[in-house]
Amino acid sequence: MSSAAEIDAGRIAESRAAPATRDIPDWMRVALNGTVIVVFWNHLWFSDLSDRSLLEAAESGSLLTQATFIGLGLAMAAALWRLGLERLRPLLSWPILLCAGWLALTILTSVEPLLSVRRSILLLIAAMLAAGVLVVARSARQFALTLAGSALIIVVSSFLAVALVPHLAVHSAFDVQAEPDHAGLWRGIFPHKNEAGSVMVILILVGLYVAATASRFYGWTIVVLSAIFLVGAGSKTAMATLPVILVVTNLCQVIRGRVLRVLLLVAPILAFSVISIGSVFIPPVKEVLEALLKDATFTGRSEIWQFAVENILNRPLQGWGYGAFWLTERTMYGSATISTWVNSARHAHNAFLDSALTTGFPGLVLALLAYVYGPLRDLNRIAADRRLDPTTMLFLRLWFFAMISASFESVLFNGNNPTCCMVMLAIFGLRMRTEHALVRG
Hints:
The protein is an all-alpha fold. The chain is built from 17 helices and no strands. α3 (63-83) crosses α5. It is globular, with a radius of gyration of 21 Å.
């Protein structure tokens, strides 16, 4: 491959170079993308989990979060306008458009329309920021170094928080929304040890990408520090899924056939879905899990899943409306089952159930098209019979992590969630690289 071709292959989202008159300086690219990534991974540092106001309905949202996303959204919109909005054209694929269209329609039928509008705006801004990062990054090396700097800020801050302000960075018996056995587990700058665990897995995947693309020293430093913090956080789901992600995605480098690659990726997603929801609704699965696992309820998630399914069946077509079910006055105080603790849950702890709950069964089908079918189709177009390059491998790993996590956390339509933001970046990255792959030939 010629030198010019190698440079072209390193581009993240560009199929042709931007005119010099529409360029923006590298320091602005790095500053904007770095800020976006840090905010994606955590924008609410040092939350006090002993504050009983956390138990109240949260329909108004966080003014700080809203201001942060609006400010970054305006900055990213200006950068995209400068560089050329035509670079976003690959994202106009039919799975993405159908899913977005149905989501917009369900806002109109929401039981809390204004709440759905506010939360959908936040999701829209997060999606624009995810796509914008890919366009603003000048090259794979710049993208990797920006991710490296952001990752070090997050993981070092988390260690410092545990060391210097443990009452705000370590779970305690006084936390109003955590189980007693969480006491002593690290959460760092994150609101919960599970979110800390998810971000640490993301940072490990980022570290591997940095090591392969820009710097082995920084990359492996990120991997080691993130792995140590992951163990301290004690997030069982994150620790269980990480080996699966690494093994399956590495096998994708060996297995070149399109059908076999799809089966290799889809099988674990289906298996985790059966293990999670099956523990409630499929008796044989429940019996096997009770025999094998110490806690077959997955830390009480089975009660939430049953509660979610009951409410899905109440509005199976249009759903309750995007962001209009959990932590609302209707759910927390207007239910006949007010005595159960699941009324105060923040989400269904299952992305597929939450999709059906908020957008109905049609929304679930369209979400599967946008989040599963589309990325797998794009991956096969990029890879064909070739070995996956490091950037494509990063997008694949981030996507696969989100799809496995979807069986235990709501990571598909939550603009406040780090995994949701990164899976949108991954899906958009795979989509954009289908066009780029054809250019590099």
